[in-house]
Design a protein that fits this description.
Layout lengths: L1 H31 L9 H7 L4 H8 L3 H25 L4 H4 L1
Helix pairs in contact: 3-4
């Protein structure tokens, strides 16, 4: 049981360090124009790294509900962009000609 608790804490620490590194690298890339990372909220970036909504809320000083709202907005934006791209693509070979 003790080893499992230690392992869980190490995994949590790894996620938090990964989150800090991702935020730092993202900011550096944007500040130096070395690359153009895709626009996304910090909430989404942290969720992509495996942090839970509760962990994200605690890190950002938000409520769990505020994090959920931000993540849902990001998902809706991605869906709209995907639908727009699909609408612009030809559906079959005849339309491509």
């Amino acid at each position: 049981m003790m080893n499992e608790d230690i392992l869980n804490e190490l995994k949590k620490l790894n996620r938090n360090v990964s989150a800090m590194l991702a935020i730092t690298v993202d900011r550096h890339l944007r500040d130096t124009d070395l690359a153009k990372p895709r626009p996304r909220s910090i909430d989404h970036m942290l969720a992509d790294l495996g942090l839970t909504g509760t962990e994200i809320a605690k890190l950002l000083g938000k409520t769990r509900q505020a994090v959920s709202i931000a993540l849902n907005k990001d998902r809706q934006t991605v869906k709209r962009k995907t639908n727009t791209k699909d609408a612009e693509q030809p559906v079959n070979d005849e339309e491509r000609k």
